[in-house]
Amino acid sequence: METTFVRKDYTSTITPPPTPTNDKGPSNKVKVNVLLFLRRYIDRWEYLQLNTPLELWDALKGRFVNIHDTFLPELTVQWNEICLLDYKRVNDFNKDMLRLKTRLNFCGKKLTEDDMIRKTLSTFPTSALILTNQYRLARI
User: Fold this and answer.
1) How far apart are CA 63 and CA 69, in angstroms?
2) Do 61 and 67 contact (CB within 8 A), yes or no?
3) How far apart are CA 117 and CA 9, in angstroms?
4) 101: Cβ–Cβ under 8 A, 6 or more apart, which residues?
5) Measuring CA to CA, how many Å separate 130 from each of 85, 116, 125, 135?
6) Are 111 and 105 in contact (CB under 8 A)?
7) Residues 47, 36: contact at Cβ < 8 Å?
8) Residue 46: partners with Cβ closer than 8 Å, 6 or more residues away
9) pTM > 0.70
10) How would you label 101-117 residue by residue, b for 16+ Cβ within 10 Å and e otherwise?
């Protein structure tokens, strides 16, 4: 959403000016366009009473600022439980691993390629430990 605000030059409506200037700020037409843009996907009545883009932005930010904290425990459990043997195809496992990586990165937990490889190798059955040891020795 922030990239859309920058692209459409709406950022001046949701940020207070850093210093008082002679500039009157955004026009009423721009403010109405921003309100319409923000309200487009809102179906909650408590946000419809707010009349300025800055008020609406602050209310939404207050509600959704901790969304990362709510997703992180669930994603961590999914990361700990994902196992290659639970999938019929390696592509499906890889797709889910990349999806989890993206969501964990969104929540602030950065995963590297080494983390993903270690996770994949740790889900192999014990009979395949030789392969994992060979990989680890090759990485050293």
Assistant:
1) 12
2) no
3) 42
4) 111, 116
5) 17, 19, 10, 9
6) yes
7) no
8) 59
9) no
10) bebbeebeeebeeeebe
- How does pLDDT run along the chain (140 residues), one tens digit per residue? 667 777 777 777 777 666 666 566 777 788 888 888 777 767 667 777 777 788 888 887 777 777 778 888 999 999 999 998 889 998 999 999 999 999 999 888 899 999 998 888 888 777 777 777 777 788 77
Other C-beta atoms within 10 Å of 12: how many? 16
CA distance 103 to 95: 12
Residue 107: enclosing H or E segment and its boundaries?
none
For residue 33 the two structure tokens come to 């366009």
* CA 25/CA 52 separation, integer angstroms: 13
Q: How many residues does the chain have?
A: 140
Look at phi and psi of residue 37 and say left if phi exceeds 0, alpha if psi is from -120 to 50, else beta.
alpha
Contact 139, 117 (CB under 8 A): no
- C-alpha span between 69 and 117 (Å, rounded): 26
